[in-house]
Automatic annotation (TrEMBL):
<dbReference type="InterPro" id="IPR005122">
    <property type="entry name" value="Uracil-DNA_glycosylase-like"/>
</dbReference>
<dbReference type="InterPro" id="IPR018085">
    <property type="entry name" value="Ura-DNA_Glyclase_AS"/>
</dbReference>
<feature type="active site" description="Proton acceptor">
    <location>
        <position position="62"/>
    </location>
</feature>
<dbReference type="InterPro" id="IPR002043">
    <property type="entry name" value="UDG_fam1"/>
</dbReference>
<dbReference type="Pfam" id="PF03167">
    <property type="entry name" value="UDG"/>
</dbReference>
<keyword id="KW-0227">DNA damage</keyword>
<keyword id="KW-0234">DNA repair</keyword>
<keyword id="KW-0963">Cytoplasm</keyword>
<dbReference type="GO" id="GO:0005737">
    <property type="term" value="C:cytoplasm"/>
</dbReference>
<comment type="similarity">
    <text>Belongs to the uracil-DNA glycosylase (UDG) superfamily. UNG family.</text>
</comment>
<keyword id="KW-0378">Hydrolase</keyword>
<dbReference type="GO" id="GO:0097510">
    <property type="term" value="P:base-excision repair, AP site formation via deaminated base removal"/>
</dbReference>
<dbReference type="InterPro" id="IPR036895">
    <property type="entry name" value="Uracil-DNA_glycosylase-like_sf"/>
</dbReference>
<dbReference type="GO" id="GO:0004844">
    <property type="term" value="F:uracil DNA N-glycosylase activity"/>
</dbReference>
<feature type="domain" description="Uracil-DNA glycosylase-like">
    <location>
        <begin position="47"/>
        <end position="208"/>
    </location>
</feature>
<comment type="function">
    <text>Excises uracil residues from the DNA which can arise as a result of misincorporation of dUMP residues by DNA polymerase or due to deamination of cytosine.</text>
</comment>
<keyword id="KW-0326">Glycosidase</keyword>
């Protein structure tokens, strides 16, 4: 099923009461608190990966909650910021998977997004210093709809579900039409439970080639 659908179509369908309430809440919160990411970056994942270009979905949780880290892409940080521990482990597994010793100089994953890797957090905002502080303001309703729309209107998308939080979304994905690769979260607390050695990056590229799609250059950072 390859019906042409843009993110504009998806987002315009979600101008419902719950979504309007999220926007009102954020507007009020930003007047008195520090909220990440910046307002202009909240929907970066949608701006950088066109709906019809999605090949891979990497689901994160909520954004980084320290200054200047979050910029709207799961696991990614701006170029000038220190690479976070989870992303360091992602890079470590990437090198191991492809038997390389590539040196990653920064943690900005925009070039993945530009290749069709949709870097979606399930919660799109967070209060400074307070992880999961916006987990109950309605974002899950929105991102569940986003995943459901990808499931419905795209074919052969590879979902990389790392950790229990991401894996709760399995019920939204039809594995007859898509591919689901699951393992532990890449954080230092859980990477040794399965993330290291999962080979998800080479597996993803093999699946893309089987479906006559261009593989991802994971080292283009």
């Amino acid at each position: 099923m390859n019906k042409i659908l843009s993110w504009k179509d998806v987002l315009s369908q979600e101008k419902k009461k719950y979504f309007i309430n999220i926007m009102k809440f954020l507007k009020q919160e930003r007047l008195k608190k520090i909220i990440y990411p910046d307002q202009k970056d909240v929907f970066n994942a949608f701006f950088l990966t066109n709906f019809n270009d999605i090949k891979v979905v990497i689901l994160g949780q909520d954004p980084y909650y320290s200054k200047n880290q979050a910029h709207g892409l799961s696991f990614s940080v701006p170029k000038y910021f220190t690479i976070p521990p989870s992303l360091k482990n992602i890079y470590k597994e990437l090198n191991s998977d492809f038997k390389k010793k590539h040196i990653f100089n920064h943690g900005c994953l925009k070039n993945w997004a530009n290749q069709g890797v949709f870097l979606l957090n399930t919660i799109l905002t967070v209060e400074s210093g307070k992880p999961k502080s916006h987990s109950d303001i309605g974002w899950n309703i929105f991102t569940d709809k986003v995943i459901s729309v990808i499931n419905l209107y795209r074919d052969s998308v590879i979902f990389l579900l790392w950790g229990n939080n991401a894996q709760t979304k399995c019920s939204l994905i039809n594995n007859n039409n898509h591919y689901i690769l699951k393992t532990s979260h890449p954080s230092p607390l859980s990477a040794y439970r399965g993330f290291f050695g999962c080979k998800h990056f080479s597996l993803t590229n093999n699946i893309l080639l089987e479906n006559k799609k261009k593989p991802i250059n994971w080292f283009l950072i």
